[in-house]
Design goal:
By secondary structure, the protein is of the alpha+beta class. Helices cover 38% and strands 14% of the residues. The strands form three sheets. A five-stranded antiparallel sheet has the order 1-2-3-5-4, sandwiched between helices. It has a three-stranded antiparallel sheet with strand order 6-8-9. The chain has a two-stranded antiparallel ribbon with strand order 7-10. A hairpin with a 2-residue loop joins strand 8 and strand 9. Helix 3 runs parallel beside helix 8 and helix 5 crosses helix 10. The protein is globular, with a radius of gyration of 20 Å. The termini are far apart.
Length: 319
């Protein structure tokens, strides 16, 4: 364990209070409670309306927090769903040698634990959110971490993921999955400007309340690129029968195109296949008690692949 990788055991309430007293003493006496352990960060609830996010699992988390601090305050006012808006940035210190972030707290339950039950309402909420987010990004916008480019760049990852999932008995019809992928790779590449993207819309990063979407969290992968990477969420997050409602409601920014075209949706299906394969493996690992596994990721991944493959490659909306 290096100085830039504090162990999970080193992050506790006492440490966070020390950091607050040192840099933001006006917040130091608020109630603290562990909220979640993410891939990159621990999230601690700070009072009723704030949260503290501290990197602990990956070295890349430092840059991701700084990126959110730089860009999210400007994007948040235009978004119709709540997001964790950075309020203050904690700088590295002798006590904790990494940056950390204070954001607004977004209430709700992750969709992998509390799935959508009001499909049409959730579809409109997601469409409105992505319509607002998917605006042309400035030239200095961040690039994706291995995302946003041609799907063909992920051919090896797809092949390996499909092969291992098939070997584990997680894929009932690998040929149907492969057909969706090959159709997506063959689709024309994105011809429009790079748009702002969340970049990581899986069920644990979208919150629900009363059966519909209530917030979107974890913008560490925020970048500018092909909207297909976000539109994959249509198949990942929404229940059966809701995709057509989403596509009726979703619109690109007027300066780009009035709606998602067939090529974009074909690429989005390929992105959704990649996301679902990853979810299958994470769910399987969770079922078997392996590190990094989450059993709650398996059911939405299986449902996604079923929706994507039911109608072959012809049903673009996959509803």
């Amino acid at each position: 364990m290096t100085a830039t990788e504090p162990d999970i055991a080193d992050i506790d309430e006492a440490l966070i209070r020390d950091l607050l007293r040192d840099q933001y003493p006006d917040l130091a006496d608020r109630p603290l409670k562990l909220g979640a352990l993410g891939w990159d960060n621990q999230v601690w609830r700070l009072g009723d309306d704030l949260a503290v996010r501290l990197p602990w699992a990956t070295e890349s988390a430092d840059a991701l927090l700084r990126k959110e601090h730089a860009w999210l305050p400007g994007l948040a006012p235009h978004l119709p769903l709540p997001i964790p808006v950075p309020q203050r940035l904690g700088e590295p210190s002798e006590r904790f040698p990494r940056p950390w972030l204070i954001t607004t707290w977004v209430p709700g339950e992750p969709a992998d634990r509390a799935p959508v039950t009001r499909g049409a309402e959730a579809a409109v909420a997601l469409a409105d959110f992505l319509t607002a987010l998917h605006r042309p990004a400035p030239e200095d916008a961040p690039e994706g971490r291995g995302r946003g480019g041609p799907l063909a760049d992920h051919a090896e990852g797809f092949a390996n993921g499909l092969a291992s999932a098939t070997e584990l008995g997680l894929i009932p019809d690998p040929d149907a999955v492969r057909a969706v992928w090959e159709d997506a790779v063959a689709a024309p590449e994105c011809a429009g400007p790079a748009l702002w993207l969340h970049g990581d819309l899986h069920p644990a990063n979208v919150l629900t309340t009363n059966g519909t979407f209530a917030g979107v969290i974890d913008f560490g992968d925020l970048f500018a690129g092909d909207p297909a990477y976000d539109l994959a969420a249509t198949w990942i997050l929404l229940p059966d029968g809701a995709a057509d409602v989403f596509h009726e409601a979703y619109r690109f920014h007027a300066a780009y195109r009035p709606a998602a075209d067939a090529a974009t949706l074909r690429r989005a299906r390929g992105c959704a296949v990649l996301r679902a394969l990853g979810g299958l493996h994470i769910g399987h690992a969770g079922d078997h008690g392996r590190p990094g596994g989450k059993s709650t990721w398996g059911p939405p991944a299986r449902a996604s692949l079923r929706r994507l493959t039911e109608g072959g490659t012809g049903g673009l909306t996959g509803g």
